[in-house]
Amino acid sequence: MVMNIARGFLGITILIGICYFFSGNKKNINWRLVIIALLLQIVMGVLLIKIPAIKWVFEQIVNFFMLIIKSSEESSVFLFGDLAKPGGPYGFAFSALPIVVFFSALTSMLYYLGVLQKIVYGFAWMLNKTMNLTGKESLAMAANVFIGQTEAPLVVKPYLNSMSRSEIMSLMTGGMATIAGSVFGVYVSILGGGDPGAVREFGLHLLVASIISAPAAILTAKILVPERKDTELDKDLSLSTDVAGDNFLDSLARGTTDGVKLAVNVGAMLLAFMALIYLSNYVFFEIGKIGGLNEWVRESSNGVFQNFSLQYILGLLFSPIAWVIGISNEEMMIVGRLLGEKTILNEFVAYASLADLSAQGLISERSTLIAAYALCGFANFASIGIQIGGISAIAEKQRKTLSELGFKALIGGTIATLMTGCIAGMLI
């Protein structure tokens, strides 16, 4: 346990050092805010993972999500029959993607009823008071935790054009470092593999991961793009008055339509990215025939990698990062591969790979959980385009700033989720 904690703090120190290296204004970094954000992340991690009473509360929230997933599965079976039975042989589209549609509809309904606003406001108030953030970035960060990077900007829509460069960085980094409620069910379904107990366990871990990544995202954003010292902090926590529909049924219909678009988008991305992986691996396999490279890869990795492949290359490139977050020397190539898939492709592909590796017994339970935490975010190259296009559509004046900060937001979001992985490694 002591070694895990020491390894975790070493990893966090290295990750903060990387942020400092890429900082655009090192002299303006507010180290007091950085320390408070780090302490808040650690304290929240301990409370949510280790304190039974608080853990019980979050278990009940996960049970609610389990009910939603079960309801979605029942409606999917009604619509698609045997095609949608959980754990069936008919693939991801009929069993998992309908969950996205129902989650999106439910989120829209809760926003119309004002429930989500209260949750977002409460979390934003905590961030505002503990870290002395502006009201706009507190609300944006809180919204990212619960509704994701595409919908969160709508919460602060009236303020977007007046937000400072540092506030925009917080908004973008928060979107990269957290996940949306609409895809939460898909992730836990992938990782759980149809086992209700496993789905419940991963649901709790991913819920905790998304929440404790928020202060880490603030930390990385404020190091990479610090606020100017002469900036006047606006503490207003007023939420946007926009509602998701004209009435209850309209909000449900709009949420359903948005969910269908998201589900189709997710399915299309997986189709394209998985095909790209197979195409790349065919090329790499042919290259690996030269000089017995395929056999060398198989022997040197003890059969974890069957031949020279994209996964093997990603494992090599990202294995030092895997070691930094607390993964053992024996498994850092495996987790490095997952981190690479998540960054280069997306987290859907990475979670599918993690579930497959776990089912084959190629990765330990501890490394599986650390990886689940570290992969829990939208930090990938595609998200840069999503954020620039989505946010600039409602804040045209910020397009140049969004374009300039895209890559830094990817770095900040990635490091934030890796810090969350370090916290998990310390506590699990």
Task: Note down, in words, how this protein is organized.
The chain has 428 residues and is mostly helical. It has 2 domains: 2-250 and 372-427, no CATH class; 278-363, no CATH class. The chain is built from 19 helices and no strands. Helix 3 (52-80) crosses helix 5. The radius of gyration is 21 Å and the shape is globular. The mean pLDDT is 86.
How would you concisely characterize the structure shown here?
The chain is mainly α. The protein has helices at residues 2-22, 31-50, 52-80, 92-95, 97-113, 115-131, 135-147, 152-155, 165-177, 181-192, 196-224, 248-288, 293-300, 310-324, 332-344, 347-359, 365-374, 381-392, 399-427.
Low-confidence stretches: none
Number of strands: 0
Helical amount: over 70%
Task: Please state the average pLDDT score.
Answer: 86
- Look at the helices and sheets and give the structural class: mainly alpha
Order of helices and strands: HHHHHHHHHHHHHHHHHHH
Let me know the largest β-sheet: none
Question: Into which percentage range does the β-strand content fall?
Answer: under 5%
Shape: globular
Rg over C-alpha atoms, rounded to the nearest angstrom: 21 Å
- Total individual domains: 2
